[in-house]
Structure formats: C-alpha cells, structure tokens
C-alpha cells in the first residue's frame, strides 16, 4: 500500500516467480486467505447462496474460511529475470486475495501478476491509512441490490474510480521496475526490499485482466489506458456498461480474450453483447469461449477454499469440477497470452484443451491447429 488516501495511493498484492525453498517447506509463513474478519460481512452481503440474515451469513462464512491459507511465501525474493506483466481487477465483494489460485498458476508459469484491491466500496472490505498517518481506516462494502436502478449510477461511478486506480497501478510498477524508492505503509519495518523488483517486470506489453465487475473494468481500462496492450475477461458482469458498451468495440483496438462460465453467462444474458466484440474490428484478434458445467465462482478461489460438504453454502457447486475448470482456464489464458506476447507456444496447454475438448464451447478459437 502506497501512502495517501484511497484516491491517491494504490493497494495491491503481487504474485511472481520466486527463489528459495518450495512453498510447502515454508507453510508456517502462508498468509490467511481472508486477511481480516471485516471481510466476512462484505461477503455476506454479496452472496446469494445463503437465504439468511447478513449477520448469520457472516458468522457461517467465518466458520468456513477463517483458517484457510494461501500456499505462498510472503516477501520471497523474485527470480532475477524479466517477467511479463498482468494486472488483475477483482469482482464485486472480492479483494486482492480471492484470486490467488489463478494468480499463483500464472506466476508459476513466469508471469508477474498484480492484484489490485479497489477501494471504491466494491471490495468485501478494504482499508486506507488514517488521516493522522498512524493507523488504518476501514472501507466497508457498499451493499446494493445488484442490477437495480439504484445500482447503476453507483457502478458507473465505481468504474471511473477503478480506471484511475489501474493507471496509478501502472505508474507504481513502472517505478518499481526502474528501482525508484517506493514507500509501503504496510511494511514499516522494511522486511521486504522493493528494489528487488528492479528490472524484472516486463512492461513492453502489459495485460489487463478482470473477473465479473473486473471484466467490465478491463473493457473500460483497455479503452482509456493506452499502456495496456491486451486484455482478458473472465465471466464479465457488464451491467455497469449498459449505456456505453455499444461504443467500446470500436474504441478498443487491442487483442481480447473472453472466458465465460456457462451458468453465469446464461443467467446474465450477456452473450449477445460479448459477440459484438467478435464482429467488430476484424483486424484485431478477439477470442471467446464458454466452459460447460461451470459457475461464476469457478474463476475465484472459493471452490478451493470450501470443503465439499460446505460447497452448496458457498455457491460453488459445479458440474465441471474446480480442478478441471482451473486447468482449462489457465490453458486458454496461456495460449492467448503466449501468442500475444510472442512467447514460445505452450504445448501442454494444447494437450489440456484436447483432453477436455467436450467441455469447451468454441465460439471462436485461436486457429485450427489447436483442436
């Protein structure tokens, strides 16, 4: 977290290829998945899986997830070579930690991933430095009825704030890559030297990626921030773009991948809007596929953090299991990213797509060689 208010600073978590002991050897250092009990109430207001009072849902969420840890080593030294850069934007009720599984997968394949925590009241809970600079002040989730008329102007305003956060995030990683001193207000003891990131973040073709509301953020970010060179949408929730989405296909001149989860894209009826991007600007690569038997949470950590018995309460029951879904998501993402970034073709990803080909509804594919 950099100094200043939520409108000045930036709050994020980085995932990157690291040196040293394997993460299982350092299990005592693993951070909590939900970093604070304040997150429980925000999650309780968002989840529709539990038809219970918010206070009771929050209590159940705490029981389910208060001991879940992320298998990463905090403050590990990065491998000293340039890593392609991805910025990730979270969905409603999520935060900087709830996409750790997909971020760890990408980092294990050589990417430097920055998970921004948006502080415009869309996260389950966030915080900022207090006005006296001595403590932290909580920013709680703004509970609204999703998709309501009351909801729409709030989402438009939040998108505007999110785009400013994305640009400040790019400014930050440019400083880190240059070795410019950066203050981390959460590391007052200086346990991690941020100059370790000098020269290891490849910013030649930054990629913007987002899930759900973060997918809408990605579309606007690609149109507004010229430094991003490609984008990936994970099950995008497009409600906040209902009055502007028709303009975006022509405004975005960058390669774009969309991976839909079958249940959500069907319920939200967003497929027609997404197809508009495939039919415009034929000179720009636009790719979209839907993974069958999947639900919205399959692109988050929720299925991995929830026991089999509790999955119905977490809203993460899916016909296609979370491990297969994650394999397909990562395989499709890597095929797209390697192609756009000029990296060596990942043959293992071809094998995964072939193995589970019946689960992939191909609206448009990369080329005939893959299948």
UniProtKB/TrEMBL annotation:
Keyword Lipid metabolism belongs to the record: yes
Asked if the Swiss-Prot or TrEMBL record annotates the protein with the keyword NAD, the reply is no
Which UniProt keywords are given for this protein, alphabetically ordered?
Hydrolase, Lipid degradation, Lipid metabolism
User: Which Pfam family name is an example for this entry?
Assistant: PAF-AH_p_II
GO molecular function terms listed in the Swiss-Prot or TrEMBL record:
1-alkyl-2-acetylglycerophosphocholine esterase activity
Q: Which GO terms describe its biological process?
A: lipid catabolic process
EC class: hydrolase
Transmembrane annotation, as ranges: none
- Write down the superkingdom of origin: Eukaryota
Q: Which PANTHER family match?
A: PLATELET-ACTIVATING FACTOR ACETYLHYDROLASE
What protein name is recorded for this chain? Answer: 1-alkyl-2-acetylglycerophosphocholine esterase
Species of origin reads Artemia franciscana (Brine shrimp)
Classification of source organism: Eukaryota, Metazoa, Ecdysozoa, Arthropoda, Crustacea
